[in-house]
Amino acid sequence: MRKLLAAAALGLLALATPALAQAPADTVAAIRARGAVLCGVTPNTIGFASPDSRGVWRGLDADYCRAVAAALFGDAERVRFVPTTTQARFTALQSGEVDLLVRATTWTLSREAQLGLAFAGVNYYDGNGFMVHRRLGVASARGLDGASVCLQPGSTTELNVADYFRTNRMRLNPVLFENLEELRSAFAAGRCDAYASDTSTLAAFRAGMGDRAGDFVLLPEIISKEPLGPVVRKGDWRWFDIVRWTHFALLTAEELGITQANLDTFASSPNPDVQRFLGRSGELGRMMGLENDWAVRVVRAVGNFGEVWDRNVTPLGTPRGVNELWTRGGLQYAPPMR
User: How would you classify the pairing of strands 148-151 and 173-176?
Assistant: First the structure.
């Protein structure tokens, strides 16, 4: 009888925790067999991920995809960019359509606890804001009572805007577009009074408007916290470690003053931190199943975090602000690589 009860209890446990009943997939083995990282990105957000005139993907997030490929293969070009929509991005990751999501995606409790995802870090500390047509003469988000607001369904922005209007007893007229390009076109054409999104996305939109950039005003209010970063499936912790520590390698390189241009001059540095970073001492790479010079490969491919930022985000006119290193008053902080 006791054996039957024990067996029944184990059966109930297996039903209650299906994720624990099966071993997680070996993402690294699948990527190596395929020969490339499948990286989910936005379809077209200047400064973060968008194809240039030759079809080459450019931007902060695109460079993160390349950095991970460089860490794994020693070749930053062994990545396939997979454009994903706001609503389909998590399904794409959960189903294995992509190995990694670097898509201006906000780290939240529900996305980790309910969707089975894990955020490997924050590559952009952001917040939701509003952009309006200059002709409306609106100078503050509090002046948007009754306004029509262009939004993407399934985003944290949709929830945050609803909360903001409700808290301030304002009337909201949401205009929802799943397709980002349709949303932007609708706003530019005047179908919405305001466009709400991460301030980085709004800045990217305005930068892409060319001669019309001056027609749009970014309002001063930031109504939420939006820590954006790379996301993987929960459970495959070796893959998680590689993605997380690639992010930290970019930050550490900037802290140490290591750039694409001067990388080779650090070979004779007496600094133990530098020697570990270069893979000349310790076995940090092999602990993750990589070559010990994996961090060197990352910097050689895309530069340090500051270089990635300056190449992609600075042209948008967005100050680095809280995305500075902690040594300069910002929030970007890497644990010790030792």
Answer: parallel
Measure the CA–CA gap between 267 and 261, rounded to whole angstroms: 13
List of long-range contacts for 47-54, beta carbons under 8 Å, 24+ apart: 47/200, 47/203, 47/204, 47/207, 47/312, 47/313, 47/315, 47/316, 47/318, 48/104, 48/200, 48/201, 48/204, 48/312, 49/81, 49/102, 49/103
* pLDDT tens-digit series, residues 17-29: 333 333 458 999 9
User: Is 76 a residue whose pLDDT tops 80?
Assistant: yes
Quote the CA–CA distance of 92 and 251 in Å, as a whole number: 28
Nearest residue to 200 via CA among 174, 178, 222: 222
Distance CA 26, CA 55 (A): 31
What pLDDT digit, counting tens, does each position of 145-202 carry? 999 999 999 889 999 999 999 999 999 999 999 888 899 999 999 999 999 999 999 9
Instruction: Say what the pTM is.
Output: 0.86
Q: Which two tokens stand for residue 103?
A: 């898509």
Token pair 């939109």: residue: 205
3-state secondary structure 175-192: EECCCHHHHHHHHHCCCC
Q: Is 119 helix (H, G, I), strand (E, B) or coil?
A: strand
* Nearest CA among 150, 140, 134 for reference residue 194: 150
Confidence of residue 133 (pLDDT cuts 50, 70, 90): very high
Distance CA 71, CA 53 (A): 27
Main-chain phi, psi angles of 224, to 5 degrees: -160, 170
